[in-house]
Design brief:
It is a single chain. This protein is an alpha/beta fold and 695 residues long. The chain has an 8-stranded mixed β-sheet with strand order 11-12-13-9-8-7-14-15, sandwiched between helices. Strands 1, 2, 3, 4, 5, 6 and 10 form a 7-stranded antiparallel β-sheet that branches. Helix 2 runs antiparallel to helix 21. It has 21 helices and 15 strands. The longest helix is centred in the C-terminal third of the chain and has 37 residues. The chain has a domain of 179 residues: Nucleotide-binding domain of ferredoxin-NADP reductase (FNR) module (Rossmann fold, 3-Layer(aba) Sandwich), CATH 3.40.50.80. It is a multi-pass membrane protein.
Length: 695
């Protein structure tokens, strides 16, 4: 059964030709992506055809009978075409909110990661915006030709206009409000100006949801299921985000460019490779949340994160860490990473760029643990190809992974794990010799600098003197003082004392119960709001239903949202959080925080001359200067996997496939995709997978 499941995953993730075109157009197109595209376009086409035929046939019949239409035939057809397109948005609205939920039964049942689902949300969003843009422009064109554009555009509740329930001005506001959301969601803005994208996305979402329901009462119908699933995720995230934890340990690399930090987690919070977590540090910014990939494999009760100094937020974080400040942390997660898609492949190739090694470290630690315990499916060969701008980024390599290079391959020939390190630019920094001493250490003179100077990570190299630092960089164990710290106003509630990070929900029963309350509460909210329509029909006869339709539409969507969110959070999530906090407050808080172990220098690689390693164990990994030739190296690995003596598990003992995982900057990912598309058909198949986290 497991072999069949692994084969199914491989088939779904197979990249369709022409791979070079799809890589340029949409970052690659797998079999699963094509299935989703066909289902979406098919449902849109069927909905459009069914509605358009209903509109088109009467026009043809009336024209054939010689009866005058309310305008030129082209204008009437354009208006009906516009209405058919607006009706065809229903399946898109039904599907668009499902992928944005980090925690839902969909991700648990299908095993699909958020990084995959969010692509579908972007595709659906672009399709929806093109459709409603056509609808709006076509309607404006008809109004301009009729000479009624101004009166129709500004119409809010006029009974005289077409006797329809549509509030035209509300529809225009919904469309205009969604345009900034659409523009800022483009890659060029989302990746460079994330805060701008995030703020416009939230604002545009509320404008579109509220005013589209005022424009056409009943708009909630296609949105309802997706909004309920998103409401479940929102409840869990808000519940976690209201709690406060703290950084228990942190370490800054030799040149001050890489920060490794730890958070204490409850034993019930399980982490696995490829999971990500959202973190907020109120003392830096109360409104800025950053996603981080968890470096899985740290000791139980710990969440380890690698961060590269990039921008004002990470720079200030390092400055505060170096000053040994106690920092409150709000969190939401971890999310994703439920499925281990690398199972079943004879060869696993991990290509990483810079600090994007974090998800690959999680995969490597899982594979190393399997190889050492001889449990689970273990590939015959594993390759780590790691390219970084500076040598200091290699220092996050863990001892257990470096030691795995001594594991023999199943065939008995060569290494099971091959690690290749490439530095694209040299850097002048302290280098350790194999004896464990720094070069020119005896000639180093104490440096007199101010605390402000040392607090800046840019000047971190000045710590390298016998009086300022240890050989492996700045290491801060903050555990002893965490229990004595109180973070006032860090939480939106009264939670001042830090606590271990708690999981999103407490067991499967709690998870299912929240779903039940959300769906039931949303339906009850709709029933309550529908009573308003009945009152209008009974007490305001003759005034025109459309005069109050915007009120009915607004009331429906607001009652549905409040009914879905309120009871589930107030009855099932908030009491558990408060009870847990008060229960922990009565106990010895100092005993809750574990001691720091995973950040010790024994576990972190030391920089040597053109190499990194662990001198005390005799482990040394060379660092090559220059960029990695991805096509050439991939072709060599593929040729080795296709050799007759390769210990494969496929038909006739051949290699059943190469799992190729890439995480890094866009140019590297694009080069990897082009390298895969350039491979000839003959040889083991390559299953490409992009692991760069993008929202």
């Amino acid at each position: 059964m497991s072999r069949c499941k692994a084969l199914t995953k491989k088939v779904f993730k197979y990249q369709l030709p022409p791979q070079r075109f799809w890589a340029w157009w949409c970052e690659g197109l797998s079999v699963l992506d094509m299935i989703v595209v066909v289902l979406v376009l098919g449902s849109v086409a069927l909905t459009f055809a069914s509605v358009f035929i209903q509109y088109w046939k009467p026009i043809e019949a009336i024209s054939g009978l010689g009866i005058a239409l309310p305008g030129p035939v082209w204008r009437v057809k354009l208006e009906k075409l516009s209405l058919a397109v607006s009706n065809a948005t229903k399946p898109v609205l039904w599907m668009i909110f499902f992928p944005i939920a980090h925690t839902s039964f969909i991700t648990l049942w299908t095993g699909m990661e958020f990084t995959t689902l969010i692509r579908y949300h972007r595709w659906l969003g672009h399709l929806l915006m093109w459709m409603i843009t056509f609808h709006g422009i076509a309607q404006y064109a008809c109004w301009i030709h009729m000479g009624t554009w101004r009166s129709y555009f500004t119409n809010w509740n006029s009974v005289a206009i077409l006797q329809k329930n549509d509030i035209f001005l509300a529809g225009s506001i919904a469309w205009i409000g969604a345009i900034p959301l659409w523009i800022t969601s483009m890659d060029w803005c989302r990746r460079r100006f994330f805060s701008v994208f995030y703020r416009f996305h939230v604002l545009g979402f509320f404008i579109f949801i509220l005013f589209s329901n005022m424009h056409w009462p009943g708009m909630w119908q296609p949105m309802m299921a997706g909004l309920f699933v998103y409401a479940v995720d929102l409840i869990f995230r808000v519940g976690q985000a209201s709690q406060v934890s703290a950084i228990t340990a942190a370490k800054v690399s030799e040149d001050g460019s890489i920060l490794t930090w730890q958070l204490a987690a409850d034993d019930k919070m399980k982490t696995c490779p490829l999971q990500h977590i959202f973190l907020n540090i109120p003392t830096i910014s109360r409104w800025t949340w950053h996603p981080f990939t968890i470096a899985s494999g740290s000791q139980p009760g710990m969440v380890t994160i690698y961060t590269k100094r990039f921008g004002s937020w990470t720079t200030e974080l390092m400055q505060r860490i170096i000053r040994r400040e106690q920092l409150a942390v709000r969190y939401a997660g971890p999310f994703g990473g439920a499925s281990q898609a690398w199972d079943g492949s004879d060869v696993v190739v991990l290509l990483a760029g810079g600090i994007a090694i974090t998800p690959m470290m999680g995969i490597l630690r899982d594979l190393v643990a399997r190889a050492e315990s001889q449990s689970g499916r273990v590939p015959s060969r594993v390759y780590l190809l790691w390219s970084a701008r500076t040598q200091s980024e290699f220092a996050v390599l863990h001892r257990s992974i470096a030691a795995a290079t001594n594991i023999k391959a199943p065939s008995g020939h060569g290494q099971w794990l091959t690690i290749e390190l490439h530095a694209t630019s040299p850097i002048n920094m302290p280098i350790m010799t194999e004896s464990g001493r720094f070069k020119d250490e005896l000639d180093a003179k104490p440096t007199t600098v101010t605390e402000e100077h040392l607090a800046d990570p840019k000047n971190f190299k000045d710590r390298y003197s016998p009086t300022n630092t240890s050989p492996d960089g700045f290491l801060a164990d903050l555990t002893p003082t965490v229990s004595k710290t109180s973070f006032r106003h860090a939480s939106p509630y009264f939670f001042n004392s830090p606590r271990k990070m708690l999981p999103k929900y407490f067991g499967w029963f709690h998870f299912a119960l929240v779903h039940l309350f959300v769906f039931l509460g949303g339906f009850l909210g709709l029933i309550l709001s529908r009573a308003y329509n009945a009152e209008i029909a009974c007490t305001r006869v003759g005034l025109g239903v459309n005069k109050y339709s915007w009120q009915a539409g607004l009331l429906e969507i607001v009652c549905m949202i409040l009914g879905a969110l309120g009871p589930a959070y107030l009855l099932l999530v908030f009491p558990g959080i408060v009870g847990r906090y008060l229960w922990r407050s009565r106990q010895n808080n100092a005993s809750e925080w574990p001691s720091t172990q995973d950040l010790d220098s024994d576990h972190t690689a030391h920089l040597m001359e053109n190499a990194i390693g662990f001198p005390e164990d005799g482990l040394r990994l060379p660092i090559a200067q220059g960029r990695l030739n991805i096509p050439q190296r991939l072709a060599e690995i593929r040729a080795a996997a296709g050799a007759p003596d390769f210990p494969g598990t496929g038909p006739k003992g051949k290699c059943n496939g190469i799992a190729f995982y890439v995480s890094g900057p866009d140019p590297m990912i694009g080069a990897a995709q082009r390298a895969v598309s350039a491979c000839k058909i003959a040889g083991p198949p390559i299953f490409f997978r992009r692991e760069a986290w993008s929202i």
